[in-house]
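Input record (one chain):
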Amino acid sequence: MPNLKVWVAAARLRTLPLAFASIFLGSLLAASQGHFDSLVFVFSLLTTLFYQVLSNFANDYGDGIKGTDQERKGEARAVASGTISAKDMRFAVRLFVILSLLSGSFLSFWACRDLGLEYQLGFTALGILATWSAVNYTVGDSAYGYKGLGDLFVLLFFGFVGVGGSYFLHTQSWSWLVLLPGTSLGFFAMAVLNLNNMRDRETDAKSGKQTLALSLGEQGAKAYHALLLILGFDAAFLYNRLLPSSIWQNLYFISLPFLILNLLSVLKAKKPEDYEPLLKKMALTTLLFSVLFGLGKIL
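The corresponding structure, as predicted from the sequence alone:
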């Protein structure tokens, strides 16, 4: 069995800022409406951590056994490099499926305790779907990540479910307008995925992994990236126009220069290696945006 250091590396904890961004934003928006449950917040973060590590382990396993990671640029993957066997990684995936379901079920039943069993079961079912999504991005013959559907699922879970779901769990009420900042987070998370897929276009083509970046071609993927950043920022701007608060609601504009720098770097990129450092920067910019936008609605 590999040591802890190897497992921590395989968990790719650097992906957590992006995963946590939607929870921060949904929770801060709820707090701006006078609703905040500390236990909901903690278990939302814990459940999200389990989902993200599950997704990373499952992706490592799925791509590893299919040979997709053999010539992959950037950070080496555990199964492909042989530091973790496929058997051990399969066990880790199953373990985090259980942890995700347990944590998500507790979160659902606690947050919806005053709403009735139908809400509790509904959010539990959503958690099961999120768990399925985390595993089946690359695992199995029908892995949706190999069919160009990864962007759609990122928008759904990092955007709508992450922001809208955490907002609902705090407030126990719904506003369709919350889908606008959810769209912002979803589009920015899709931009991170797009950077990953632009970096891996050559190896994905060889292994038969069909991604949107591969279908669009290099220039098309760059234009798509620009569209995601512009529309993501515009969705937040529209939300503030529809629900104005104070001058502090514009605090998120501090993140705009970082988005512009990211886009300019993408447009200049020529080699797969050029995209690697942009992944972390885009994820951290998304987290910065979510915190600033949420705080701006509270102040």
